[in-house]
Design a protein that fits this description.
about 325 residues, alpha/beta, Rossmann fold, UDP-galactose 4-epimerase, domain 1, 14 strands, about 20% strand, globular
């Protein structure tokens, strides 16, 4: 069985690739290396069932060869930056790229896609924890809107062309190879100035965090246990944590004392930036009913991530 992993040189993608190879799938990675890195694939690059194609999904001719004789596509490639930027970047790298993948699958008769979506599609959910059937979905960032558009495209292809689609709505995933996010940023800031930490927003923003190993376990379970033409799964932990609590954990792990917290106050009610969902907590009972049990709670995942980033930056 051959699996193509788009964005396979990225954070989540590279861990998925390692897991698929351990389970003896043939794996082809497609990545333009704009945010991913070949260093993330150093553990697998010599594997006999592994191949790498440098190509951009915005140009379908770049990647067509990689998709030949494929049974399943794990579509993880995307612009990973949630914060407000050039909307065209989200459109081209998320929506246009997903459309190109689906069209290539249709033409090559590949019938199964696993898509990395995001908790941001829910927007400011009034129900917490938020289940998969919550609606209407009203994303408040262009990133979240682009992910929801991709979900809609996949849904249409499952119903029109007989595809099978598995949509994975991730909470905040942390772990080795993650080069962005609040834990990463706090460690860098405190290494530069161990006496004062700038915190975007008012510090009360609360979200779920999941360790990468838990996220990969959940992703593959969702893929294997989906028995419908279109399945949607939340992937997160069973609890949530505030930004201030994250700061406390990072400060503690760095062995610092008397750090002054400088809250920026944020925008629109204490958010870190425009488009930042202030409170996010996903209901993962659907996955739990299939046997999934996250090994780590949000605070434990954050602590492990802090230790990882501290070790990396100090060496």
């Amino acid at each position: 069985m051959k699996v193509v992993v788009t964005g396979g040189a990225g954070f989540i993608g590279s861990h998925v690739v390692e897991r698929l190879l351990r389970e003896e799938y043939e794996v082809s990675v497609v990545d333009n290396l704009s945010s991913g890195s070949l260093e993330n694939l150093k553990n697998v690059r010599g594997a006999s069932r592994f191949s790498f194609f440098k190509g951009d999904l915005r140009n379908i001719g770049d990647v067509k060869e990689a998709f030949k004789n494929t049974t399943t596509v794990f579509h993880l490639a995307a612009n990973p930056e949630v914060r407000l930027g050039d909307p065209l970047v989200h459109y081209e790298n998320n929506i246009q790229a997903t459309f190109n993948v689906l069209e290539l699958m249709r033409k090559l008769d590949i019938k199964e896609i696993v898509f990395a979506s995001s908790s941001t599609v829910y927007g400011e959910a009034k129900r917490l924890p938020t289940p998969e059937n919550y609606g209407p979905l009203k994303p408040i960032s262009v990133y979240g809107a682009s992910k929801l558009a991709c979900e809609a495209l996949i849904s249409s292809y499952t119903h029109t062309y007989g595809f099978k689609g598995i949509i994975l709505r991730y909470a905040n995933v942390v772990g080795p190879r993650h080069g962005r996010g609040v834990v990463h940023d706090f460690v860098i800031k405190l290494l530069k100035n161990p006496r004062k930490l700038e915190i975007l927003g008012d510090g009360t923003q609360r979200k779920s965090y999941i360790w990468i190993e838990d996220a990969v376990n959940a992703s593959l379970l969702a893929w294997k246990r989906c028995n419908e033409e279109l399945c949607v799964f939340n992937i997160g932990s069973e609890d949530s944590i505030t930004v201030k609590e994250i700061a406390d954990i990072v400060v503690e792990e760095m062995g610092l004392k008397s750090v002054e917290y400088a809250f920026t106050g944020g925008v629109k009610g204490g958010r870190g930036w425009i488009g930042d969902v202030k409170v996010m907590h996903l209901d993962i009972s659907k996955l739990i009913s299939l046997g999934f049990k996250p090994r780590y709670r949000s605070s434990e995942a954050v602590r492990l991530a802090a230790r990882y980033h501290i070790q990396i930056f100090k060496h």
